[in-house]
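Ticket #4471: structure output looks truncated?

Reporter: J.K.
Steps to reproduce: submitted the chain below (433 residues) through the standard prediction queue, then opened the result file.
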Amino acid sequence: MRTVCLTEETKKNILEDLLKRSPNQYKEYTERVEAILKDVQQNGDKAVFSYTEKFDKAVLTPDTVRVTEEEIAEAYEKLPARTVEVIRKAIINIRAYHEKQRRNSWFDAQPDGTILGQKITPIASVGVYVPGGKAAYPSSVLMNVLPAKVAGVSRIAMVTPPGADGKVYEGTLVAAKEAGVTEIYKVGGAQAIGALAYGTESIPKVDKIVGPGNIYVALAKKAVYGHVSIDSIAGPSEILVLADETANPTYVAADLLSQAEHDELASAILITTSEEVAKKVSAEVDRFVAQLSRKAILEKSLDNYGYILLADNMEDAIDAVNEIASEHLELVTKDAFTVMTKIKNAGAIFIGEYSSEPLGDYFAGPNHVLPTNGTAKFFSPLEVDDFIKKSSIISYSREALEPIHEDIIDFAKAEGLTAHANSIAVRFGKEVR
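Returned output as attached by the reporter:
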C-alpha cells in the first residue's frame, strides 16, 4: 500500500479520488440503463426475460421466474446444516437490534380540545435487490429484509440474478425464507429494478426498493425514484482504520483487506500517527494478499484506492476521518471511546481491536447497509424507519380554534391566499373576499 504524509493537499486529492467511484460519475451507463427501464415499462415480462437471457444466460418464463417452494426446500437440502444454524443465529441478533428502533404512533391531547399526534404506518410492499455475480450475499438478504419485517411490511419481494442454469444460490434462498421474504424472483440488473418499479405480468409493483447492486442497479434505482421510493444509491465498499502506536498491525492489515476484496473499486485506508505501525501494516498487507484467494481483486483495489496516511497528531487524523466520512470506521487507539465522541461522520463505528468489520457485516446486529462515498455526512444506516410512513394528526375543537382563528386569517392574508383565510373565517360567521 502506498504511504503518504497527511496534509491538506493529500487529503483533498484522496477525497477527489474516492469520489470518482460514485455511481453519479458513470454517466456513460445512464443511457443504457434508461433504455432498459423504458423497455421493461413498455413490454413487461418480455423485456425482463430477454435481458435475463442476454446478461445472465438464463431462460425464464412466467412459470419459472418465481422461485417455488420446491426450489427452497432443495436449497435447504444442499446448504450445510452449520450454515443454516449460523444464519438463524445472525437473525436473532439483527432482529433484536432493529426491534429497539421501532416507533409507535403518539397523540397529545390538551384540555382545550386540541389533539396533535403522529400515526405510524408500515410501507405496504418493498422490493429487495440481492446481488449475485462475483459473490453471493445471504447477509445482504438478512440486513434488508429484517428491518422491513420489524417495521411490519406485509409484502417483501426479493429479486436476485440467477445462474445460467436458472437457479439461485441456495444460501440466498435459505436466508430469504428464514428472514420472511414473501416472494422471490430470478431477475437481476436494471431490468429487475424496472420490474419492481413499474410492475410486469409476473412481478407486481412495489412501493419501495432497497438493496445494493452494481452500477446498472444503482443508476436504475436513481432513475425510478419518484415512481417508487428507494433507500440510497450505494457506491463501492470502503473501510477506514484509525490507529495509533497501540494497534496490532496484523489485525489492521486483515481488516483493511476484508473490504478491499469486494471489488476493484473498493477503498481501504489506514490513518495512523505511528510510522512504525504504518510500515508493519504495509508489510502484513503484502503478506496476506499473496496468500488470499481473491488476490487479483485485492491488488487492483489497493493499487487504485488503498492508502496509508501518516498524521502528525491524533487531532489531524480525526479531522481527516470526518472529512472522508467512511462507510466503515475502525478505531484502534488507546482511549478509543474518547476518540469515538469526536467522530462526526461514519456509517458504522467499530471500537477496539476485537470489533473487526466483518462482525458488523454478518452477526452483531446493526445494519450493514451503510452510506458510502462521503454520504455518511448526511445519510444513516438502513433502519426500521426506512420502512414506515408517518402521518401527522391534527384535531381542534371550536373552543381550541376560536382564540387563534384571527391569527390564521391574518397569516393567510399576508400570503395573499384569501381562500385559505376564508376557510377559517366561515367557521366563525365571517367571510373573506
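Triage note (M.O.): checked the attachment and the full C-alpha cell line is present. The first strand starts at residue 2 and ends at 5.
Status: closed, working as intended.
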